[in-house]
Amino acid sequence: MVETLLLVGVVASIFVGFNIGGSSTGITWGPSVGAGIVKKTTAAAVMTIFVFLGGMTVGQNVMQTLSGEIITIDLTLSAGVAVLFFIGLGILVANIFGVPVPTSMTTVGAIAGLGLATGTLDYETIANIISWWIVTPVIGFWIGGIIGRYIYPEVNRRVTIETSEGPLLALDRRGAVPKPVLGPNTTWSEVGTTAVVLAIGCYMAFSAGASNVPNAAAPLVGEAGLDVNTAVIIATLAIGLGGFTIARRTMDSVGGELSDIPLLAALFVMVTASTITTALSYIGIPISLVMATVMTIVGIGWGRATRPITFREAVTRSPEVEDREIELGVIISEEEAGEPAPPIGEEEAEEVLHGSDLFNPRAVIKYISMWIIGPSMSTGLAYGFFVLFPGVA
Q: What would the pLDDT profile of 225-252 be if each residue is shown by its tens digit?
């Protein structure tokens, strides 16, 4: 009986990991795939490697929080399987609504529901987690805002990310030992920018592993029956499977909204979101990579859009600037190469990319709604289940 239940739990863990791989691989590698810098198969392979590294290192801290700190008792095997079921249900609902899955929040909600039903919820821990859920979007927005107002315009003017036709590298077989050489149209500048793009993608994959591997692995660790390393390997393989299969479509759409962002802006978003997520995972906070990503995108758009006015005017919405046209969601303007970006408070070029090119406000509202609905639903369903079937816990 125990072996059968554990098998069911492993299947549920694979289902959760598979869907995580489908969404997180698209967000991580979509911009690079769309720019033709990396192939989908290569992206999925690299994603799997760095997800494993993230899950096996920083992810251990999140694993400890999920499996041993939210509630004051150890998760049993039956309870772990039930929690995985509610995580999977949250993924299903998110997929129905077509939004990236807030898996970390759904996982915390399911475990919290168990704690409420059994009177074992650690309120101090859950309050600390929720406080970070509230603070993280604010941090992502303001970092993005600073980048959009003060950093991105200058970098965008100086840096061009281009891809030439043909392979990046080739093999010179004229000697006794073949050696790698630049492709027929490759420049050293292209090699450098490609290396930076790949490094940032690996960093984001590491961050995704640190935050997401515990969601698929933690419910089966300890009393539930699996050791940490085995659970991490199962979760990683499942995420990798999702990366090689269903993520091929999400890498094309990059989560639906991210695809219209210029690659340079996407790199700023990836570095910022990954740093926020990795830092919080390091201190054991289960956090959604999507949360930091979406709010950084919105912040960069706000910062870029408000450059024609001063910071005080942007924050206070001063009446004297009501007649100034501010394009919410603007990300780049067509600045001439070699010319400095217009100073803060001055009008920019007329040709700009508007809101639909950066983020869809309705989509952002949908994301935020899922950040509330996802954990609330998993908490409520888990609470009701464990109240009706206390023996499962």
A: 788 999 999 999 999 999 999 888 777 6
DSSP string for residues in 347-359: ---S-B--HHHH-
Strand segments (E) across the chain? 169-172, 179-182
What is the distance between the alpha carbons of residues 338 and 276, in angstroms, rounded to a whole number?
33
Where on the phi/psi map is residue 36: left (φ > 0), alpha (ψ -120 to 50), or beta? left
Distance CA 60, CA 294 (A): 25
**What domain range includes position 153?**
2-392
Q: Model's pTM, two decimal places? A: 0.83
Number of domains in the chain: 1
Contact present, 337 and 309 (Cβ < 8 Å):
no
pLDDT digits (tens, 9 = 90+) for 303-312: 887 777 666 6
Mean pLDDT over the full length of the chain: 80
Residue that the structure tokens 């067509």 belong to: 334
Q: How far apart are CA 188 and CA 317, in angstroms?
A: 46
CA-CA-CA-CA torsion for 57, 242, 285, 264, nearest 10 degrees?
90
For the chain, how long is the longest CA-to-CA vector?
74
What is the per-residue pLDDT for 326? 39
Vertex 153: Cα angle to 152 and 155 (nearest 5): 65
pLDDT in tens, 126-165: 999 999 999 999 999 999 999 988 898 888 887 777 666 7
CA dihedral sign of residues 159, 162, 167, 171: negative
Distance CA 332, CA 315 (A): 21
Where does 68-216 show beta strands of DSSP type E? 169-172, 179-182
> Which amino acid makes up residue 8?
V
Least confident interval from 2-6, 103-107, 256-260, 306-310? 256-260
Residue whose pair of structure tokens reads 């592993």 in the numeric block: 209
Tokens 């930091």 correspond to what residue? Answer: 292
- Residue burial 20-57, b: 16+ Cβ < 10 Å; e: rest: bbbbbbbbbbbbbbbbebbebeebbebbbebbbbbbbe
Distances (CA, A) of 255 to 180, 261, 316: 35, 12, 33
Separation CA 235–CA 221 (nearest Å): 12
